[in-house]
Every structure is written in structure tokens, then in C-alpha cells.
């Protein structure tokens, strides 16, 4: 397992970026997430793993208040970003999402040009003063997403014309273009073929130099490859959270062990 | 991958720390939120404007039309004077028919004047002639029909309720005032004064006017007698015929197109035709009806048959589209199951698919009929604006008689100058809307009751 | 024999055929239905189809063709003296028909025998008086040729009706015999029956094509006649519309086209913003409960007949605009105007655009919205920058179709826009449209074969082409630019 993991960096002096305490989510009558306490560290890749329907995506969507768009969802508990409660009444979710970006499971590029896809975020948030600045942001974001060399000659082509892997990398470029502090990724590779998956995983490791990344994955191997911290969810509870290496080699909770060894899942 | 680390172009500075608190809305955020609120308000405003217009429209119709259902009527004893109506004393209707409505008019006038004299009701400047003119010009004809049907009435004195003249009715409803009466040749202020007295005396009152729904149309001078009888029958004949024509043809065509038609150019042609026909203006169908059904085939103008044929052609595409949607909604598993037990394609369709699609088909048909009920323009072109005073006879011969339809009657009354006809027109719209509401509610209730979620 | 009686006889024959056919099939199988190829009912059904369908088709064709044939023969018999041209021929035939109808009434009322009627002569008997007695009023004395023609007409009609009855019954009987003969144990009655039914279904579908063909033919033939009387160039490019009773009319399309397009423009300015924003609100912002109430209410507007809107324009909107806008601004004194009709047509089209746009907006996948919201865009920015551009082809299509409806609208403009054909920029002036003139020229007093009446067909075909073109364009745009969402 050790040689599959990319070079470890120091993890224990990281600052806490997001603090969650007692988070509960109800969809109508269904109690989807029960009492979650977790600290997400900055400049770290944190993986959420667990069987289907265990609440990992639900919790992810709480971190940027995407659950607000679901009419039946009720969220309680505290989630702090840099010490500020994101569910406070004074907080505008729109402002929050400029700082906490999201990449979705199925690539969803806008039916616009590649350039306009990436430029969308900076434009609406007014991050640039002129076209030259915007061009720079688009180029740097596409480079960060390892897409620049492939598309630099066709920035005006429509984003939906790319292959699956390229589309997902475009969505990642789009998400990083607003310089978020946290990047949430909801099973970003599940719709991709293995080569594209490998490309995206490399990207994730590079991205953590600048952002804190939270990735939901149903592949334990991916979590082991990519993350420094791992949280295991089961039936709406956060069962165990700790260093990735320790979770996979020496889990403390018997449920975690059952999942990792494949007895449940 | 090294390119990612080496080629990092200069990134513009991040916004100042002060803007970074989540609790404080940045100025940009405030502007964006203001834009958001404005945008949302535009949406609410648009909905509000639409609904407000609807409310105003319904309000004006009800305000103008509800009075059509009440009509001013005079009640007084009438002596069927044999000297006027049956000079020969034979009580033979054929002989008595020689007396025209003029005579009966005199009879009514005399009776009313006599009654008023008896009760001591008099107004200065209002003579017997004026009193007689307060009775509707339509009333003598009704009395004549009644006496000829029952000659035993001759010589008797009966208590009769007749329509009051149009202007008197207008006075009660507020259309006619003393000022307008000065300039009006049909009524004098004295007559209005008399009307007040008659109301006090209980001789003149407004009653519920069933004749509005049953009587035929009346001429321009007698708005008080105009009724929707023929229009309702005409519309009813046409709706039944439209149903008979479109339902079988529409369902048959839909079944063919959905289940049996091969995917070739010919089928494409048919489908393109149907969707185009659904978008053709209604007046073009009127031209078609005029040219083919009336000129070429020689069917009678203004008959409900021609109207029904024209409207069927208009409604057919709509019904085909709705029926196809209903058939398509039946899942393929049903068809597969039927074929699997050895049914033929046609048996599968007629025994299984069609019954399951029936509620959707009926709903679509009712809605199609509802929109057909309101069609006016094509009916104008086939001659239905003509003035019809005789009821069409019973079908099947009756469909060739001249008739009219509810929306055509609305239009025709609205085009007449007398404001009393405006009240009639609005009243007709109320009747039309009641029918439409019933049909639409039936369709919606049916859809809810029989809707299946596959 | 009357049509209803004949129909009943054919139906009775068909029912009899059903029973006989089924019985025959059972007999052929020795009483055991299982040995038959198809269910017994199908044998009966095949007989019914062969008996009733050809007979009814023949009857329908005969009823349509017979009057045309007889009219043609009588007109030819009248000769060039009585009927020198088409108009005189039509008038003569109208007289012939009326007199024939009067003779029928006379016979019914007075009990004349056929021979007596045949023996009457126009110059001897007081035909006009007698006809007046049964309710047929004639303007002049009856001419002998017309009278003879009327008698001949009645005779031919009676003969024709009798021949039809015989022919139809013969065909029905022949069909029944043919079908019955084929019945035996191995006769694939169900297949035969189903193929027959399939052809009936195809026939029904063909009615759609027939209708289009009928529309085009009817307007085309009369338009060609019109262009024979009035130069096409002057029609399409003429700027004056002034039909005269006596001839020498100016029949230019342009003033009418101007009125139509101007009114359509005003209506689009009302319906597109309101309809679009209403759709955006109900699709994106409104909570489910509000949506459930608001959407049906807006649909109610769509269900109201256009004549009601016309009355609304005439009685409420027109005077309102005149009193509060036109007169104070000195722009016009009439309640009927382009603004009146345009605004009311706009209101009529609001639910059309709103429900189409609502469907189109709802078809945009939620993933696109999530992508935009996830980047920190507000709802309105998402709608403006992501949802609407994605929905644009469909919305453009909806707008084009609404324009097509506005162009073809008749009742509202008849009652709200007036009849004055002119080209003016002032929207508070009364201007008329193509549709109004079609109605007025076809329901007016001018005789049918004059250019003043036939111009309506030319107008009709112009209207048909314009609205068809818009609809085809709308469909093409949607098809070409629509994004394929999985």
C-alpha cells in the first residue's frame, strides 16, 4: 500500500479549515445524517468513504450549503469555516460558495465555449479588472486542471464536445478558477475511464498545495491513493476519522474493519 | 506534469481580508443580491399582471352580463277581447290567424291602460299610446301564439306577464336615465316616471329571465326579447357531430401512426402535415369550408353540419396529438405481454393498449371539444352570422337547417349598436364560460381519477 | 328513399351478414369452434366489413357527385341564351333549385300527382302565385325555360336518388355474398378482417393529408381566378386597399400586411416579457404550492375563447386606452386601434408562451444549475447565464409560434382594431389586418365571382404561407440548436 501513496507531507501541523459539530440532516422524515463531528484540515486531501446511501454525499453538500436547493432538506448542528458558522443567518450562501467550490459526479460543463465555462465564476464574482486578467485566470486554471495543452487552440469550441475525462477536468478548472479555499469533489471519477481517473487523481494531489480538498469516493483504493485523512461513514453516522494509513491498516472500529475487508459494502 | 508547477502565471491578488468574513456582505454581494431580488420581482410582477388581467376580464363580463338573466316584466290582467281577435265568433284558429300582431298589440295596450286607470295610476303627459309603448313589441306575437293554440281563451280575462319594452328594462338597469330619455326617440321621461309608479304598484318588476336561454334571437329593436335558444341548440348539434366525426377518425389515425406505421418518408409526411395543421389559423379552415363544403358540395350555408365539418377538421390534429401521447404513455411491456401470449398486433392494440389509453384519450377529446366550442372565425365565413329566428328541426334533417352558435351570437350581439345588446353579449359569454368550465373541470377530474403512474 | 332509411337498411344487412357469417363458419367446423382458424366472431366481422364499408363509401361519393352532375347537365340544357356566362348560369341554377323546391312543397301541400306537375306550363298556370302560397317568393314571373329546367331537375333528382338506393343495396348485397362465399374452416378470417381494419386506419390518417390538400387547392384555384382578374403585382405591392362595389377597386396587400405586422409586434412586446418572466418564476422560484395554484390559473386564460377577448377589447381596453392615453396625448380618438388589438392579443398569448417556456426551462437538467450554483452564482445569474441560453432554441421557437398565432388571429382584431386599411406609424390609430378583410370580403354583399370577393382567397393563401413558414422555421430552429441532454 505504501508505494501506491504519493509522497506524504507533514500532516499534524495543519490548521483546521472546517469544523463540524453535531450535524444532522433530515430529508423529510428520513434521518439521513446523524450527529457528525469532524475537523477538515487545510492543504489536505480528506476522503469520505462508505457504502451507498451512508450519507457521505449528504454531508459533503452541507459544507457548501448545496442542500439549501433541496426543498425537503433540514440541516442542524454547527459547521464553521475559518471559525465562522456557515449556517448563520447573516451568511449569504452565494458568498460561501465562492470560497467552497464543488465538482460533481457527472461532468456538467455548460453548453458554452471552453473559455466561457472557465471564465464564468470569475465573471460573476467580479474577480478581474480586464480581459487580460481573465485570460490569465482561464489559462492558469486550465493548466492546473492539466487541460491547457489539449484545448489551448480551441478555447472557443463548445465545452460539451470534449470527451468524458476532458469534461470533468474542465469542471475542475472551472471550480478552481474562483480561487476557492476548499474544493469539494463528489465521486469525481465515477463516470470516467481508468486513464482519465489516473489523470484526475494526479491533479488532486497537486491541487492540495493550494486548497483543502474533500473527496467523496466509493473506491477505497482511490481513497488510499489520494488522501491524507479518511472518514468512514455508515448508515448516516461518522464511524471513524483519522489518518488514511491508520484507517486502512489499523482501524479502531469493527465496522470500519468490516468495510475495508469487504464484508460489508 | 511539471508544467503545472513551473508555469504559474501571476495571479491577481486575492480580495482584501476584510471582505473575507462570511458574516459581512461585500458590496459586490449586495449589488448582486439586489439584482437577484429585482429579477425575482419581475417574475412575480409578470404573474401578477397576468392574473390581474384575468380578474379584470372576468369582473367586467360578470358586471355587464349578469343583468341579462333578469328582465323587466309587466304583470296585469288582459282581456282577450273577441271584438279584436275573433270577429266572426267562430273560435276557429285558421280564421283567427288573419288577425296580425298589430291587433294583439292594441289589445295589450288597451288592457294595460284600463288597468292603470282602474288603479288610479297616472302621470302627466303620458297618454294611452305611451303606456302601450312600454310593452315590448315582442309581446303581441307571444300572446297571439298562445291564443291561436287555445281559442277558449277568447273573451276571458287572464293575468298575464309580458316583457316590458327595451328602454324600460334599460331604465331599471341603469342604462337609460331621464337625461338620455330627452334625446331618445324610443322613450320619454314621462314614461320613465310612469315606470317608477308601476314598480311601486308592483305591476313592473324584474324577474329571472329563462327566455334568455331558450328564446331565439330578436331583431335590433327588441333586445329585451333576444335569447340564446337557437345558439345553444346550434352549438349542441355541432359539438355532438364534432365528437362523432373526430373521435373515431382521430383514434384510428393515432393508432395507425403510433403502432403500425413504418418509419418511412410517407409516414413523415403525414406527421408533418398533422403538426402543421395544428398551427394553421382558424380562418383558413373557414375558407376551406366555404370553398369545398358550400361552393363545391353545395351544402346549405349556415347549417350546423357545415360548421361541424369545418370545426372537426380544425380539432382533428389536436385530438390526434393528445391521443398519440396517451397511447405512447402505455408502457411497451403491456404490448410485449400481449404478443407473448400469441395475440396479434391488432388484438394487442385494441384489447390492451386502447383501453388503458382511453382516459387520456377522453380527456384530450373533452379539452379539444372545449376549444372547439369557442371557435368563431370559421363559422362567420360559412355564413353563420345570419339572423336565425327558427329553431333547427331534430336531427338528422335538422343539421341542414340554418343555425347559429354561442360564440357567433356573442359576436353578432356585440356588433349591434344598442347598449342593451352589450348586456346580452356579456350574458351569452357567461353561459359560454359556464359550459367551458364544466367541460374543463370534467376533463381534469377524469385525468386525476384515472391517471396511472406506470 | 331517404338517406337515413337507406343507411339503416345497409346496417341491417350488415348485422344479418354478421350472424349468417358466424353461423356458417361454425357449421363449416362441424359445430366445434376450436377447429376454426379464427374466433367465430371474426368470420362475422369480415362479412360486416365487406357489406357495410363499400356500400357507405359508394353512398357518400354518390351524394357528393350527384348534385354536381345534375347541375352540370341542367346548365348545359339551359343553353347559351339563358346562361351566357358563369354568373348568369349560377343565378339561373339558383332559381331552378328554388322552383324545384317550391314544386315539392306544392305537391306535398296540394296533393298534385307527378303527371299533373309534369303537365304544368309556366305561361298557363299561375306558377308564381302558387309558389308564393307555399312560401317561395319570386321576383319576376317564371320563365318557361327555367320552369322546364326545374321540372327536369326534380325528375333527375328523383331518378338519381332511386338509382343510388339500388346501387348501394346491390353493392352491399354483393359484398355480403362475396364475403360469405369465402367462409370455410381454413379461411383466415382474422387476418382478412385485420387487414381490412388496417386499411381503414390508414384512410383515417390520410384525412390529415387530404385536409392540407383541400386547403391548398381550394385557396389556390380561387386565387388563380382572382389573379386572372386583377394583376398579381398590383396585389402584392399595392399600397392602397379600397374595394368598390362597382369595380375599379384598389386591392393592395401592403396596408393589410402592415396592420397585421404592427399589431403582431405590439402583441409580442406584451406577451414575450410577461410570459417569459412568468415562466421563469413558476419554474425556478415559486414554491410548489404557489406553482400548483398559479399555473392552472394562467392556463385558464388560454381556455377563454378569442371572441371573449374581442369583447374585452371592444368594451374595456379600447375606451380605456382612448380616454387615458390617446386623447390626452392627442394621438387618436378611436377606441379601436393597433394598441388595443395588440395588447389584447398579447394577453391572449401570455399562457401560450408561458407554458411552452416553462416546459423548456424545466427540461434543462438540474446538473447545469447545480454546476452554476456550486460556483457561487445567485439564482438569477444562473438563470440568465446558464438556464436561458440552454433553453434559448426552444424559447425562440415558442416566440415564433406565438407570432404565428398573433398573425392569424381574427376575432380580436375584428372587434378591436377597426376596418380602416392604412399604413400609419401611430399605434393609437385604427388599422386593419389581413384576417379582418378576409371575413369582410367573404361575408359582404359583393357577388362571388368578382375580384372584390375572390381577393379573400389570395389573402388567405398569403396568410397560410406566412404562418406555415413561421411554424416550419420554429421547428427547424429547435431541431437544429437543441442540446441533446442524456
Task: List the defining traits of the structure above.
heterotrimer; A: 6-stranded mixed beta sheet; B: 454 residues; mainly alpha; MetI-like fold; 3-stranded antiparallel beta sheet
User: In which order are the strands of the major sheet of chain C placed?
Assistant: 1-2
Q: Can you tell me the overall shape of chain A?
A: globular
C-alpha termini separation of chain C: 64 Å
CATH-level-4 superfamily name of the largest domain in chain C: MetI-like
Topology order of chain C in helix (H) and strand (E) letters:
HHHHHHHHEEHHHHHHHHH
The biggest beta sheet of chain A is recorded as:
6 strands, mixed
Quick one: CATH class of the largest domain in chain C? Mainly Alpha
Spatial strand order of the main sheet of chain A: 6-7-8-3-9-10
Give, in order, the helices and strands of chain A. EEEHEEHEHHHHEHEHEEHH
Task: Give a verbal description of the structure.
- The complex is a heterotrimer of chains A (265), B (454) and C (486).
- In chain A, 35% of the residues lie in helices and 25% in strands.
- Chain A is α/β, with parallel strands linked by helices.
- Chain A has one domain (2-260): P-loop containing nucleotide triphosphate hydrolases (Rossmann fold, 3-Layer(aba) Sandwich).
- A 6-stranded mixed beta sheet of chain A has the order 6-7-8-3-9-10, sandwiched between helices. In chain A, strands 2-1-4-5 form a 4-stranded antiparallel beta sheet, covered by helices on one side.
- In chain A, helix 3 crosses helix 4.
- Chain A is globular, with a radius of gyration of 18 Å.
- Chain B folds into 2 domains: 69-209, no CATH class; 229-450, MetI-like fold (Orthogonal Bundle).
- Chain B has 20 helices and 3 strands.
- In chain B, strands 2-1-3 form a 3-stranded antiparallel beta sheet.
- Chain B is extended and about 90 Å long.
- The relative contact order of chain B is 0.10.
- Chain C has 2 domains: 3-194, no CATH class; 241-481, MetI-like fold (Orthogonal Bundle), CATH 1.10.3720.
- Helix content of chain C is 77%, strand content 1%.
- The termini of chain C are far apart.
- In chain C, 46% of the residues are buried.
- The interface between A and C is medium-sized, with 29 and 21 residues.
